[in-house]
Amino acid sequence: xxxxxxxxxxxxxxxxxxxxxxxxxxxxxxxxxxxxxxxxxxxxxxxxxxxxxxxxxxxxxxxxxxxxxxxxxxxxxxxxxxxxxxxxxxxxxxxxxxxxxxxxxxxxxxxxxxxxxxxxxxxxxxxxxxxxxxxxxxxxxxxxxxxxxxxxxxxxxxxxxxxxxxxxxxxxxxxxxxxxxxxxxxxxxxxxxxxxxxxx
Length: 200
Ligand SMILES: CC(C)(COP(=O)(O)OP(=O)(O)OC[C@H]1O[C@@H](n2cnc3c(N)ncnc32)[C@H](O)[C@@H]1OP(=O)(O)O)[C@@H](O)C(=O)NCCC(=O)NCCS
Prior knowledge:
Elements: E1 6-7, E2 11-15, H1 21-25, H2 31-34, H3 46-58, E3 63-69, H4 76-79, E4 83-93, E5 98-105, H5 114-128, E6 134-140, H6 144-152, E7 156-167, E8 170-180, H7 181-188
Parallel strand pairs: 5-6
Antiparallel strand pairs: 1-2, 2-3, 3-4, 4-5, 6-8, 7-8
């Protein structure tokens, strides 16, 4: 889907496009990053990443951004970070007003608060621009880092999807968490309620 570029205090979030192949290759073959994904398990080369980008660019149920450190008005260490990672909304359902969110940060940029900056920006876009009422996610029960992040951001536990994915010869349980628009509004938009926008 065509999405707008977004800005956060330290980052520019650009709609994913073919210029971002090399950026994605910064983490696509790093097992510390891909080990918690059911998609990025195979070795990735430019061709595979390009196919992935083209599929997601054209998918009307998907909004995908690549995040880059802003170069103006930020501390030098922020300005030199370059590409940071991706945040994306997918399985967006305009009938039910729900969709999923996902995030990937390259390992060199972990623990600098980037995910906590990127996710609210994508969530806000999902609720405000895309008319979602509920944004949810699934995370491997072994991914304690991501689980801690999501709970810190206000996602509520919904339960465990048992043996939900068969990956690398093993069945994996997934935590299911979600954040309703009203909860987001309460937590992040204290200055006023979100405008209700007709669904595109
Ligand atoms: C999970 C991931 C997105 C976090 O990105 P990040 O930019 O490092 O996250 P932030 O620095 O914004 O926030 C880190 C928060 O995660 C949580 N966290 C980090 N390590 C943790 C751990 N070992 N246990 C529990 N919570 C942890 C904390 O809440 C922490 O916040 P704090 O440092 O302010 O206390 C990143 O590590 C990543 O891309 N991992 C690989 C891909 C992945 O797992 N994606 C999610 C798939 S569902």
